[in-house]
Amino acid sequence: MTADRFFERSRSEKRRRWLRIALGVLAVAAVGGLVWLVWFSSVLTVRDVEVAGRTTLKESQVLRAAQVPKGRPLARVDVDAIEGRVSALNRVDTVEVSRSWPHTLSITVVERKAVMWARLNGQVRGIDRNGIAYRSYASPPDGLLEAAIDIPDARDRLQTSEALAAVVVEIGERDAALRREIESVTAATKDSIELRLTKGRTVVWGSSADGRRKLQVLEALLRIEATRYDVSAPDQPTTTP
């Protein structure tokens, strides 16, 4: 009786051992099959490309820049490389590329938006909130401020454009009434920003720092009749009759 129990227990342990081995083999095979299906087979390949978010760009321009490898397994598509190629387009501010299983690659772009314009090298150029001159206009666009940025050095011009754009955007977001009074903006350096207001008035803004404080001080100063208001040092503002 003891021998029979021992024999039965031994057979049961062998069955369990073989079952574990079989399950392990099946698991490995399943994982291998899944890897093959996703990474190497033609079942989950790129068949469609969707482009969203564009406003002035043509879909064909985005697709041409993206160079999406149709027919390649979706999992093996280098989305970072595609984002890099699309973001190189002048009018693209940001881009996100994502996989939409089983067969679609989605490209979502956010285009740059001009916040001011300037004459650069004889052209009317739209400048975005990052100070980048990214597009040309046939004539000065309505609704945008003119920016005078006569700076030969490209790096200094970009830094100054960025500072100017930051001021224009902040004023537009925080003080719409003041924004309507601004006729143009100018700067010789990133720290010498000036606003040309209606009625021949000038505001010396200085750098783009402390914008909120400068707006608060300027609101009070504008109640004084003057031709020049200096808030470049907001704790020590001055006016000139």
UniProtKB/TrEMBL annotation:
Residues 44-112 form the POTRA domain. Coiled coil: none annotated. This is FtsQ-type POTRA domain-containing protein. Keywords: Cell cycle, Cell division, Cell membrane, Membrane, Transmembrane, Transmembrane helix. One of its GO terms (cellular component) is plasma membrane. PANTHER family: CELL DIVISION PROTEIN DIVIB (PTHR37820), CELL DIVISION PROTEIN FTSQ (PTHR37820:SF1). One of its GO terms (biological process) is cell division. The keyword Glycoprotein does not apply.
